[in-house]
């Protein structure tokens, strides 16, 4: 009888372990400066969305993010929409864990899945006339109730590289306007509470093992220490724009190079492989590892 042994030099990018999160297949790399200006970018994105969709003309209506207290309101001299960020919290409705894997600059990498963060805003309208104020507030309400996500086209800077954040309005039991106005020392005023939930990357992707270069199968005679036979699948890479579709010929079989410039062929150490480019290239299979060809 024989003994069959399997050998694989690296696992590469195979997902064989618990904790891999398939909902986030691609790690996102953001500069450290992103976190310094993240809140500003979120504010800027919301303003761009409301100005375009409500719409809010920049010549007629101001948009402010200040705390809407008495001191601030006393300085207003034209219609203003106030979008006040009053709370930031990790979302409990979209809690996720695990890792995400993907290619980063051509290297298989992994990182923690993004953390869903809720940005809670109070949106109010400020005009000198109550009728105009209610009309403006109604336009804002129509837009916000009909918005389920903040479209990428309005997302500022590096926010556009992240999934579109969701926009929701709280139910009655979740509203906290009365306490909020008390904290702002202002008079009670109607407003729209919204929650924008954004998936925030929480870690720098780290490289995984190198790509798989070979997969070998050996058949040994248990009664002898001599190696009767050894077959392995050798991986190759041809860095030539003309390579995809080209045939690779070896003494144990043939194959074709795929669109990425890679191939896999049955071979043994010392075998000669021919890459049938316009100017054919012949290479020798090494004792271990794969083949990389740069014409």
What do these coordinates show?
- The chain is an alpha+beta fold and 295 residues long.
- 17% of the residues lie in helices and 35% in strands.
- The chain has 4 helices and 17 strands.
- Strands 1, 10, 11, 14 and 17 form a 5-stranded mixed beta sheet that branches. Strands 2-3-6-8-7 form a 5-stranded mixed beta sheet. It has a 4-stranded antiparallel beta sheet with strand order 13-12-15-16, with no helix packed on it.
- A hairpin with a 7-residue loop joins strand 10 and strand 11 (229-238).
- The longest helix is centred in the first third of the chain and has 22 residues, at 32-53.
- The radius of gyration is 30 Å and the shape is elongated.
- Residues 1-23 have low confidence and may be disordered.
> What fraction of the residues are assigned to beta strands by DSSP?
25-35%
- The span between the termini is 45 Å
> Would you identify the regions where 5 or more consecutive residues have pLDDT less than 50?
1-23
Order of helices and strands: EHEHEEEEHEHEEEEEEEEEE
Assign the structural class, choosing from mainly alpha, mainly beta, alpha/beta, alpha+beta, or little secondary structure.
alpha+beta
Number of helices: 4
Work out the number of β strands: 17
Main sheet specs: 5 strands, mixed
Helix content: 10-25%
């Amino acid at each position: 009888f024989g003994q069959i042994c399997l050998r694989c030099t690296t696992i590469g990018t195979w997902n064989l372990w618990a904790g891999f999160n398939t909902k986030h297949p691609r790690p996102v790399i953001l500069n450290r400066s992103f976190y310094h200006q993240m809140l500003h970018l979120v504010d800027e994105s919301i303003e761009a969305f409301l100005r375009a969709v409500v719409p809010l003309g920049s010549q007629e209506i101001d948009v402010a993010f200040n705390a809407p207290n008495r001191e601030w309101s006393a300085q207003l001299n034209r219609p203003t929409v106030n979008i006040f960020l009053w709370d930031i919290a990790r979302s409990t409705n979209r809690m996720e864990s695990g890792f995400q894997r993907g290619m980063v600059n051509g290297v298989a990498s992994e990182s923690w899945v993004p953390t869903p963060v809720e940005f809670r805003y109070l949106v109010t309208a400020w005009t000198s006339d109550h009728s105009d104020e209610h009309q403006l507030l109604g336009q804002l309400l129509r837009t916000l109730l009909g918005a389920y996500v903040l479209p990428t086209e309005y997302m500022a800077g590096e926010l556009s590289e992240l999934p579109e954040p969701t926009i929701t309005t709280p139910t009655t039991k979740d509203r906290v306007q009365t306490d909020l106005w008390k904290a702002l020392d202002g008079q009670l005023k109607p407003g729209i509470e919204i929650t924008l939930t954004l998936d925030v990357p929480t870690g720098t992707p780290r490289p995984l093992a190198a790509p798989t270069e070979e997969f070998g199968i050996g058949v040994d005679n248990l009664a002898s220490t001599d190696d009767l036979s050894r077959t392995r699948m050798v991986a190759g890479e041809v860095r030539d724009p003309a390579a995809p579709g080209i045939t690779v010929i070896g003494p144990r079989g043939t194959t074709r190079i795929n669109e990425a410039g890679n191939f896999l062929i049955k071979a043994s150490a010392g075998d000669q492989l021919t890459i049938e480019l316009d100017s054919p290239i012949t290479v020798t299979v090494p004792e271990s590892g794969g083949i990389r060809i740069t014409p």
